[in-house]
Design a protein that fits this description.
single chain, alpha+beta, OB fold (Dihydrolipoamide Acetyltransferase, E2P), Chloramphenicol Acetyltransferase, six-stranded mixed sheet, five-stranded antiparallel sheet, 8 helices
Length: 417
């Protein structure tokens, strides 16, 4: 019986996505676990794995197609002995739909579609391919990290698939080749045209809308961080033996979360029906990734200590850079922190991350001349800028939040209360 390969859902709320490419062609034999296609969201590329074995009899939706509805048929898999000429009739026979790893929550099927047997599931990992080379997800990630060109490796897995040991042998043999970016057009006019992927398109659309449609304003404050730096040094001197290393940004996230509980009016979003005052401080942290920016969320940050925040930040940032985050891990934050201090930026204003009411921009800590009790002194000062949605947070609320934040940054002992 022919098996319909369906467009899987990457999250319970996903309705459509981009079928980026097929990694197999019509006539290829596939086995359970084989990666057969890639689908894209605005933040990640996910692999589609086969659940059943058979031969790909027909590609229904071509690679590169956008706005493919969840649960729509993207391909037909033939079982042993089936004739490809019978695909058109076989796909109309009602068969039981098999649950997949993508079906964490059931998604309603289109009214016109009969119950179906689904041979695909979504696996959360980055696909790095060259042509139609078959490789395991782990092998692909290892190859990318080591700058090994997959086309130079002979696979020893099933049907010549490249597996972990093949990549390890290639690395040991020094078979490395940095993969160059792919350009859709090489022009004689002095530029190369790089096509927009889903992430860059989404960033362009959302940031343009936010900057254009949301009445926003910045508030600036300087924070002295000498006490924070001393506390961080003392904590790390003891905790590094246990594998814990606290960063300045961990203190910042902790201070933001506690300040949002102190000033709940700043932990809000605008809707046409009214203002949403969030119960929890779900703090998003801006992470630069290849091709754009992603904001993974530390949930319930007000209930997490520095060690928990540190572990969560490192895990989310690493998986964000490897495009391994699930949608629910970068959606739904209530407040965003964007830190460019480690890059030497003194101060800046960020564009609001809608529908959040505020985003905090963190500059570099630097030694400056300050006046204390009428005396000139030197202190390490960090400039921060709070961008506010004026429909939600007015100047007084923004100033109250910054005062609470500044107090905790300058007196880190307050974060223990």
């Amino acid at each position: 019986m022919a098996i319909e390969i369906l467009m899987p859902a990457l999250s319970p709320t996903m309705e459509e996505g981009v079928l980026a490419k097929w990694l197999v062609k019509e006539g290829d034999k596939v086995e359970p676990g084989d990666v057969i296609a890639e689908i894209e969201t605005d933040k990640a590329t996910m692999e589609v794995e086969a659940v059943d074995e058979g031969v790909l009899g027909k590609i229904v939706v071509a690679g590169g197609t956008e706005d493919v509805k969840v649960n729509s048929v993207i391909g037909i898999l033939l079982e042993d002995g089936e004739d490809a000429s019978k695909i058109s009739t076989a796909s109309q026979k009602p068969v039981e739909k098999r649950a997949t790893k993508a079906d964490e929550k059931p998604n309603p099927e289109p009214a016109s579609a009969p119950p179906i047997k689904n041979s695909a599931s979504a696996a959360g990992s980055v696909a790095v391919t060259s042509g139609r080379i078959k490789a395991s997800p782990l092998a692909k990630r290892m190859a990318k990290q080591a700058n090994v060109e997959l086309s130079t490796i002979a696979g020893t897995g099933t049907n010549g698939r490249i597996v972990k040991r093949d990549v390890e042998q290639a690395i040991a043999a020094g078979t490395t080749a940095v993969q160059s970016p792919v350009y859709s057009q090489i022009s004689d006019d002095g530029f190369d045209l790089i096509p927009l992927d889903g992430m860059r398109k989404t960033i362009a659309t959302r940031m343009s809308a936010s900057f254009r449609d949301v009445p926003h304003f910045p508030l600036n404050v300087d924070c002295r961080i000498d006490a924070l730096l001393a506390s961080r040094k003392a904590i790390n001197a003891v905790s590094e033996a246990d594998g814990i290393k606290i960063s300045v940004n961990d203190f910042i996230v902790r201070a933001v979360a506690l300040s949002l509980k102190k000033v709940p009016a700043a932990n809000a979003s605008y809707t046409p029906e009214g203002l949403k005052l969030w119960h929890n401080a779900d703090v998003a942290i801006a992470v630069a990734v290849e091709g754009g920016l992603i904001t993974p969320v530390i949930r319930n940050a007000q209930n997490k200590g520095l060690a928990e925040i540190s572990a969560a930040s490192k895990d989310l940032a690493t998986r964000a850079r490897n495009r391994k985050l699930m949608p629910e891990e970068y959606q739904g934050g209530t407040f965003t922190v964007s830190n460019l201090g480690m890059m030497g930026i003194k101060s800046f204003s960020s564009i609001l991350n809608e529908p959040q009411g505020c985003i905090l921009s963190i500059g570099a800590g630097e030694q400056r001349a300050v006046v204390t009790n009428g005396e000139l002194a030197v202190a390490t000062v960090m400039s921060v800028t709070l961008t506010c949605d004026h429909r939600v947070v007015d100047g007084a609320i923004g100033a109250e939040f910054l005062a609470a934040f500044k107090a905790r940054i300058e007196n880190p002992g307050l974060m223990l209360l």
